[in-house]
Structure prediction request, 87 residues.
Amino acid sequence: MKSISVLGVKRNVELESFGLLRRNILKYKRCSRASGELIIHTRHIDENEESIIYNGDERGALDEELSADADFIVEKDSPKCFTGAKS
Prediction:
């Protein structure tokens, strides 16, 4: 089975170019879903209470629209993409 991974797209990203990127991610996800592919998101969490990605701090929450139809959300505590994942 095929899948796509959407890596840690946070809520309230304020980059000028993010609007286009966000629309492209949504289009790609629709095409992938139509093809029967799984949608997997990753969410980086941190145990440091000062961090914007502190586990439980809404600033580190995933973008709601992008993550709403995820089949899985994998939380990870390592800055490396596929290291430290918790299922």
User: Anything to note?
Assistant: The chain has a mean pLDDT of 77. The helical segments are 18-34, 64-67. Strands lie at 3-7, 38-44, 72-76, 85-86. The longest helix spans residues 18-34.
